[in-house]
Write a structure and sequence with these properties.
globular, binds aspartic acid, alpha/beta, 489 residues, binds adenosine-5'-diphosphate, eight-stranded mixed sheet, binds magnesium ion, 19% strand, disordered C terminus
Length: 489
């Protein structure tokens, strides 16, 4: 067995789109496994998790035709995949494995259609985790077939979590024990463990999931549990870029960013890494690389605690396209702090993320900017929590408006003058009005809300302001103050 570094390599759905992509990922792992010890974490095939969610949704609304169509699609995607990859006994084994997964999905759909009842978060988790189960099995067999010894590992055997179904938190000690018991012996045998991402299990063995996009998180949780030297997240872009390349095609790759920047970037919509994935790495102290499985030769982005300083104070511009601004206004003769205190406490208990909040004391107004999917829930919560205040007109009826949140990020903005001016001049030149603004005390990000329809245009405008080639020479007064920065770190 080689005694090289211990690497965890995670392949996202975008890297596992079809048979050719599976072969490419197996080749990347096979090559690395000659020199290093590699643990693989696999996402579901691109689009499959959405498909399972749609199947469940159709079934629970009694739409048997739509549920049947989605099930057929699930089956055909995987049948095509395995028949292109395998032949003979391995194909028969793959068909058998797919058959078991399909049976599990079909039985659940039938039960939902018959009962017409809701579905628990626990059952949902056990079904949506099936996408990763089959893709990890296929990738492990792909590796075996290409002469890289490999063993498939169910997520439930490796990752131990609490029972917050749909958004479970890892139990670091339980996961450490499981991973060491299950994964290290496979490495000792000279094989590559291929673990299903996105999910885990409670101590009692009930399946859970880590939230959408959670396979990145699986990789760093496992990395911390086995004391990996590095985690490599393989995706479909060259690394973390100065903006989402789908919005700014001229976005460039950042060689290094900090864990804090990665967390902020992900929180404000950059899908390239899960918002929680940086935590286990930052705590354990190993770097995370973002790399392109379509261009493995590209260097990628290194996420670390101390990235090298870059020229531009702004590192990236991101956006949450679908957000909602709730505006709460109280009567002027009441002191609103107590109301807002109760509200934030409740949001905390309900695990609802606030993208940002603004408070204007003279106007007795609170602006809460939330992800769109949380908007209705929070409105209901406010109407229940403040039913007396609303009935007595202490609080005005809450206004809800769709907005997009744009975030301008970079640790070096701290101590650099003039960033806000440049950001808002760029937005004003596009004749877009800014609805609400927040700059965190950490000065890691500037967030502002704009009309949803203007989101992409604003991201491009701000990106051009800081990264357009012609304008790349940043005036001296806007360059980061390196002395302040090093003192601040
Ligand atoms: P995977 O399937 O590999 O997990 P995701 O779709 O979750 O991949 O994340 C990769 C995508 O993130 C990219 O295709 C890109 O469009 C998007 N993205 C958004 N913002 C950024 C950014 N700042 N840098 C890189 N990618 C970004
Ligand atoms: N397949 C899951 C999702 O689509 C997890 C992941 O891809 O990271 O959310
Ligand atoms: Mg992802």
């Amino acid at each position: 067995m080689n005694r090289g570094r211990l690497l965890v390599m995670k392949f996202g759905g975008t890297s596992l789109g079809d048979a050719a992509r599976f072969r490419q990922c197996a080749e990347i792992v096979g090559r690395a496994a000659h020199e290093e010890r590699v643990i693989v974490v696999a996402s579901a095939v691109a689009g499959v998790t959405d498909l399972i969610f749609r199947t469940i949704d159709a079934a629970r609304h009694g739409d048997s035709a739509a549920a049947g169509t989605h099930l057929k699609k699930f089956e055909s995607v995987h049948r095509e995949l395995i028949s292109e990859l395998f032949a003979g006994e391995r194909l028969a084994a793959a068909q058998e494995f797919l058959g078991q997964i399909l049976a599990r999905l079909e039985n659940s759909v039938e039960a939902l259609l018959a009962l017409r009842s809701g579905i628990s978060a626990e059952t949902t988790d056990s079904l949506v985790a099936l996408g990763e189960r089959i893709s990890a099995w296929v990738l492990a067999n792909c590796l075996e077939q290409s002469d890289s010894p490999s063993e498939f590992v169910r997520a439930e055997e490796a990752v131990v979590t609490d029972s917050n179904f749909g958004n479970a938190a890892p139990d670091a000690e339980g996961t450490r024990v499981s991973c060491r018991r299950v994964l290290l012996p496979i490495l000792e045998r000279g094989a590559v463990p291929v673990v299903a991402g996105y999910s885990g299990a409670t101590h009692e063995g009930r399946s859970t999931t880590l939230g959408r996009g959670g396979s990145d998180y699986s990789a760093t949780i496992i990395g911390a549990a086995v004391k990996a030297d590095e985690v490599w997240i393989w995706t479909d872009v060259d690394g973390v870029l100065t903006a989402d390349p789908r919005i700014c095609p001229d976005a460039t790759t950042l060689p290094e960013i900090s864990f804090a920047e990665a967390i902020e970037l992900a929180y404000y919509g950059a899908k390239v890494i899960h918002p929680k994935a940086a935590y286990p790495a930052a705590d354990a102290g190993f770097p995370v690389w973002i790399k392109n499985s379509f261009r493995p030769q590209a260097a990628g982005t290194r996420i670390t605690s101390k990235p090298a300083t870059v020229n531009s104070p702004v590192k990236s511009v991101t956006c949450v396209k679908d957000a909602v601004l709730l505006t709460l206004v109280t009567r002027r003769d009441v002191h609103p702090a107590e109301l807002w205190g109760r509200l934030f406490l409740r949001l905390g208990h309900e695990h609802i993320d606030v993208l940002f909040a603004t408070e204007s004391s003279p106007e007795h107004a609170l602006g809460l900017v939330l992800r769109k999917e949380d908007g209705d829930r929070v409105l209901r919560l406010i109407n229940t929590l403040f039913r007396i205040e609303l009935a007595q007109s202490v609080l005005n009826p809450v206004e809800a408006n769709s907005v997009a949140v744009v975030a301008v990020l970079g640790e070096s903005m701290k101590g650099t003058c003039g960033i806000l001016g440049r950001v808002f001049s760029a937005v004003a030149l596009r004749q877009v009005s800014v609805i609400a603004v927040a700059q965190g005390a950490s000065e890691l990000s500037i967030c502002f809300a704009v009309p949803s329809a203007s989101a992409a245009e604003v991201v491009r405008a701000v990106h051009d302001e800081f990264f357009a080639k012609a304008d790349f020479a940043v005036p001296a007064c806007l360059r980061p103050n390196v002395a302040t920065l090093s003192g601040a770190r």
